[in-house]
Amino acid sequence: MKKPCSFLLLLLIIYKVPAQDLSAARKILNTLTSAAFWGRGYTNNGMEKTAAYLSDAFRTARLKPMDGKDFNQYFNYPANTFPGKMEVTINGKTLSPGRDFIIDPPSIGLKATALLVKQDSTTFISRENRLLVRLADKLTWSVAQQTENYTGIQVDKKAISAEPRSITIDVENQFIPTFKASNICGIVKGTRNPDSVILMTAHYDHLGGMGKDTFFPGANDNASGISLLLSLARYYAKNPAPYSIAFICFAGEEAGIMGSGYFTSNPLIALNRVRFMINVDMVGTGSDGITVVNATLHPREFDLLKKINTQKNYLSKINSRGKAANSDHHFFTEKGVPAFFIYTQGGIAAYHDINDVAKTLPLNEFEDLFKLFKDFNRALMQ
Known about the structure:
Low-confidence stretches: 1-20
CATH class of the largest domain: Alpha Beta
Mean pLDDT: 95
Strand content: 25-35%
Number of domains: 2
Structural class: alpha/beta
Order of helices and strands: HHHEEEEEEEEEEEEEHEHEEHEHEH
CATH superfamily of the largest domain: Zn peptidases
Shape: elongated
CATH topology of the largest domain: Aminopeptidase
Distance between the termini: 45 Å
């Protein structure tokens, strides 16, 4: 489909500035979290639009497709989506999706008016409608790959003044057995040792939208990681290393690290050629330093990372963490690829909610992370 001229103009503006320039990262962040990309998820073609944007970004930066043909590695998986009505009234008060309530990810659609029966201090039900209402201190959404035979609603305790006794609900779901997604895979070939690879990755998907009017921007999770990845990709394309630097923007992380699982089962580069993998997710803060998952598995590389950071005084602290299956590094680790998963700490606490927005994300350690990764990559191959 032909892209609007303004969209192409935005790409040109982004890629004229230096890779490490914070303003360029901010523009990428603002773009990825805009309503046009609708939470980079499962409705309004959010993930498809994001994949097209990232492919254009790789092409503009003059990366090469990892398979020599196409930046997209296509795959599919099931997903339960909520593209339509999302209307809930409790005790006569109309609630706002995302702000006052969220729907349980495996819920089925329901249109009903009912009285609610109290089960405990936070749980209220309508048995005849298979409807469950729970009060919550914080609303945190996710993605389900299946549906269950009930409809669940989580309500912010602050949104209503009394216990929920009556409800009118009109919610629509659409289960997609084979939701189509794609990893975006590019590479900058090494000038002397192209068969040795450092792999840099981040997931680009988020939660998408809940109904017609609410989407989850996902600024820290993980537009921040993609902003850093694109900046590094542009830098290495202009300054090729002696070894190859490969970049993957994964889809389906929020649904269960689906994209990285697919890639490791269908690798576009031999996994035994990967000297090291760095996966970044939620790197938009950093006042309290970074945490490195798999640090205990790779003590030599972790010590090297800390040594560089101490010498250059980049980050306030580098924390060690052991093995964890909490992001796209996991399947690579299981396949024997040495890998770190790095995320920043401190700052905002928004997570999987509508408050994870670009304007409140500081990116205060973006430039230091950029420099740290460049130095670390260089040291790895010495």
